[in-house]
Amino acid sequence: MKKTTLAAQTSAGIAVLALLSAMVQADSKRFSDISQIDFDMENAAIAATMATTGEIIEIELEMDEAKAVWEVDIVNETNQVVTVEIDGQTGKVLSTNTDDDEVTPLANAVNLSQAVNIVKAIEQGLIVEAELENEDGLLMWELETIGTSNEETKIRINAETGEVLI
To answer: What angle do CA 93, 32, 84 make, to 5 degrees?
Structure first.
């Protein structure tokens, strides 16, 4: 009985390690061709807001089938979230989709451009993700950069004051 239980636990442990290893490889592969991104986050933001006016609340670089795609969430004038997908090589708008849910309007918050400028002043690397989130009542931007050796850095900014949070 003990041998069977030990063998089952060992098999389960090996399966978990294999899954974790695959997840780490998939995440590192997500940005393996970062040097091939011709259209950076700022240009993707401009293209998205030309397709849909409003305030960007999230932008993220995704690698879909070896193709770079920027996914941009924008709160439009009717307080709905519109997702715009931008080709990371050409800057072409691939799709726009409107969510039926309404969100609270953003008043006097640090916008994406301001958050990007704060990060650029303290961190080098390509910004691949920015998200405005409410964490325990604190509105903040979380930005992720990828350096030349594919190291990821996350920086949080208080969206009310512009202060960098540790």
So the answer is: 15
For the domain spanning 34-165, the CATH number is 3.10.450.40
**Alpha carbon of 142 to those of 1, 43, 165: distances in Å?**
50, 19, 10
> Which residue's entry shows tokens 């998200």?
131
Q: What's the pLDDT tens digit per position in 78-114?
A: 999 999 999 998 999 999 999 987 787 777 889 999 9
> Which of 116, 109, 104, 124 has the alpha carbon at shortest distance from 142?
116
- Count of CB atoms situated within 10 Å of the CB of 117: 11
The encoded tokens of residue 8 equal: 């089952």
Distance CA 13, CA 126 (A): 36
